[in-house]
Amino acid sequence: MEIAMKNCMSCERSASCILGRLPETELREISKRVKSLYYVRGQVIWQEGVYRPGCFILCQGRALLTVRKSGEAKRRILKFLQTGDLIPCVNASHNGERIYNDFVVQVEAETPALVYYLPASSFRSFVMRHPSVATKVIERLSVVARELLHEIWISSYCDVRARVARVLMELQGAAQFERQPLLRQVIADLVGVNRKVTNKALYNLMEEKIIAIQDHKIEVLDERRLRELQV
Amino acid sequence: MEIAMKNCMSCERSASCILGRLPETELREISKRVKSLYYVRGQVIWQEGVYRPGCFILCQGRALLTVRKSGEAKRRILKFLQTGDLIPCVNASHNGERIYNDFVVQVEAETPALVYYLPASSFRSFVMRHPSVATKVIERLSVVARELLHEIWISSYCDVRARVARVLMELQGAAQFERQPLLRQVIADLVGVNRKVTNKALYNLMEEKIIAIQDHKIEVLDERRLRELQV
């Protein structure tokens, strides 16, 4: 637990973390209550209706917020979660009921990940004594809600080429670009269409010399035009 | 203010309201801090980046949570808000910055509406003294986030007929059904496609004798099959 606490004290993401900027004594207190959970790449960190309620913070590594239909492999990636991010599945009640039977919201480790978990009862009692943490959680969740609203608009009304351009702009420079075998599927999952449709849009961008694809590697040739195209 | 407070004390939606079940003394206290805002039908209650930060509760009437592209009439309806609902745009900071320049999240009165508004500073100080309210806000926002995730899946991967069936099931029996001239546009805005595509799906359901359309009125003839069709 001392390691966990030390991490918080020296964490470079403390500005964006809900526990960031807490006084040292309070960090020490919370470090006694958090459970450190380690995940390998691909492992499910949280799944609606299955995992216990509480508050999860991604302390190291990256994760994906996804939604899938029960029993289907197809997933939609909604958000890349970074170190310091709150996993937006906070549930302060003891009742971890699933809301939808057919759709599963899930958070998956995209890299090896360390997560701090505050069980619902600890989270509630901590918030009772440190309500400033609660207002941070509220703000973070409001931002997530607005990002999701934005995403719904895009999924409903914007064409696939513009959505692919947006995803490429977002992924550019990100570590995702280095793991090429995954990339096209990741793009498809982020855009919310199948691989065939994604490939067609990528091919189209290639023909216009906005991107180049060689040995399955995607390279952005004309960032200005890609930016113009994006949603 | 006494009227506002009285409403809270006798409100039949207190179970779902973030202020519900507070002791009378606390309700009295909060009633001194809330601002009662009245809206006519169609008026904007909240708009991202324009309205002041804080917490809004819909006390009477119905409202729509929508997203639109700046300068376009086209809107996507994300959620019907009912009496007692938190308007999911809580922002406890003084900084009401807009996150996206091109997309506007907005809450519109669908009927004449009464809203309680707690400005950011009052909301923060109230939460500091009543953290149980904060945990209710957190839970409500988590549920909204999950509903939006679900909606993103549906918008991405489900066909229009299934989505129209779902919307018809949801609207069935609701007051929306009574105001027929609006209905088809509301269905289109809820499904996230244009009216032409919506009409085609409705026509298709009519041909299969699942619904009837007469004098612009939509009637569900076969609820069982409609339920089977829905997402």
UniProtKB/TrEMBL annotation, chains A, B:
GO molecular function: DNA binding
Keywords of this entry: DNA-binding, Transcription, Transcription regulation
Domain Cyclic nucleotide-binding, residue spans: 18-144
Ranges where the HTH crp-type domain occurs: 158-224
UniProt-listed Pfam families: cNMP_binding (PF00027), HTH_Crp_2 (PF13545)
Tree of life domain: Bacteria
Protein name, UniProt field: Crp/Fnr family transcriptional regulator
Entry annotated with the keyword Transferase: no
CDD domains with a match to the protein in the record: CAP_ED (cd00038)
A GO BP entry: regulation of DNA-templated transcription
InterPro entries per record: cNMP-bd_dom, cNMP-bd_dom_sf, HTH_CRP, RmlC-like_jellyroll, WH-like_DNA-bd_sf, WH_DNA-bd_sf
